[in-house]
């Protein structure tokens, strides 16, 4: 995600972009909070803009608004980037691993961003390890 070309085309034809990806521990130089949580979010938002996707949901982290760690600062910056999206957006905060309840929350969030329930078009990609 830290490279804009890695997400190019990923939002094409989608009804919404759901951005959940982040790192909670750094492995420099390739995996850093700045590269993934900030630049990665910037690249995802730019791709959503380029593809004219009508909705963006960005899932951040509990404590992003007040945490003092480098991780929390990077998540706060990611939220600011997500809020710059020119169409409907939602920034939510969660904790821990995805669960069925979290998936239901995401579906409700996506629906709340638009007038009709979204038709997700998942695009799975195996990201290379750094």
Automatic annotation (TrEMBL):
It holds the Pfam family 3Beta_HSD. SUPFAM superfamilies: NAD(P)-binding Rossmann-fold domains. Residues 3-64 form the 3-beta hydroxysteroid dehydrogenase/isomerase domain. One of its GO terms (molecular function) is oxidoreductase activity, acting on the CH-OH group of donors, NAD or NADP as acceptor. One of its GO terms (biological process) is steroid biosynthetic process. InterPro entries: 3Beta_OHSteriod_DH/Estase (IPR002225), NAD(P)-bd_dom_sf (IPR036291). This is 3-beta hydroxysteroid dehydrogenase/isomerase domain-containing protein. It comes from Sorangium cellulosum (Polyangium cellulosum).
């Amino acid at each position: 995600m830290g490279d804009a070309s890695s997400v190019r085309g990923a939002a094409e034809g989608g009804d919404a972009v759901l951005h959940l990806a982040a790192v909670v521990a750094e492995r420099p130089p390739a995996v850093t909070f700045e590269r993934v949580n900030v630049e990665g979010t910037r690249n995802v938002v730019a791709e959503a803009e380029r593809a004219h996707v009508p909705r963006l949901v960005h899932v951040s982290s509990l404590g992003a608004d007040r945490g003092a760690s480098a991780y929390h600062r990077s998540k706060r910056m990611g939220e600011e980037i997500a809020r710059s999206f020119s169409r409907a957006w939602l920034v939510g905060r969660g904790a821990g691993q995805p669960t069925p309840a979290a998936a239901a929350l995401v579906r409700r969030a996506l629906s709340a961003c638009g007038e009709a329930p979204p038709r997700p078009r998942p695009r799975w990609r195996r990201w290379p390890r750094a």
